[in-house]
Amino acid sequence: MIVTRLEELEQSKVKVYIDYEYAFLLYQKDITQFKLREGDLITQAVYEDIVSNTVYYRARQKALSILKSIDRTEQELRKKLSDAGYTNDIIDKTISYISGYGYLNDERLASAYVRARKNTKSKLVIKNELLQKGVKKEIIDFVFDEAYDNEEQEDSELIAIKKAIAKKVKDPGNLDYDEKQKLIASLYRKGFDISKIKQILDNFYK
Hints:
The chain has helices at residues 28-33, 44-69, 74-83, 88-100, 106-117, 123-132, 137-148, 156-168, 177-189, 194-203; strands at residues 3-8, 13-18, 21-27. By secondary structure, the protein is mainly α. The chain has three domains: 3-100, Arc Repressor Mutant, subunit A; 106-148; 156-203. Strands 1-2-3 form a three-stranded antiparallel β-sheet. Strand 1 (3-8) and strand 2 (13-18) form a beta hairpin. Helix 2 (44-69) crosses helix 4, helix 5 (106-117) crosses helix 7 (137-148) and helix 9 (177-189) packs antiparallel against helix 10. The longest helix is centred in the N-terminal third of the chain and has 26 residues, at 44-69. The termini are far apart. The model has no long low-confidence stretch (mean pLDDT 87).
């Protein structure tokens, strides 16, 4: 194997290419430590040492740092590690390590996400946001069953609709026909169930 390129970046970072393919991201101090120079051979032993003891170690630390303040989905964590310069092989290995210790759990994240938002957002909006985060549909369906179907108190979506209406108008009961239709359309675009919107608004006109 030959070090074919050392691409210097900001903050003393260097992208290392081996046999013309991107291999890993190091710091200048690493380049010095491992005596890497363009055009020089790199032995398999040195390569494996760098990957296992430097790059993979830093990827694990990076992942743990990302998850320290807030849960992330696997897709979000993969993107952040990719943006940090880690290759797919290292990312796969890191994800496997993190998942093995329970630090990465899309079901737990989705459950907390729904609980925090179900009284302020529609099911459709919450579902779409979770899908964008990379949560699988079957996980979302399971979490929704747990969060909504077992409700003993008032329907969370009805609560969310009431809050959305309160933000838009002070006295819904005094809206004329056109104003009411515009409000219904606005709430419907936010993903709320049309029958529930009318149910709430009808209560103001009794």
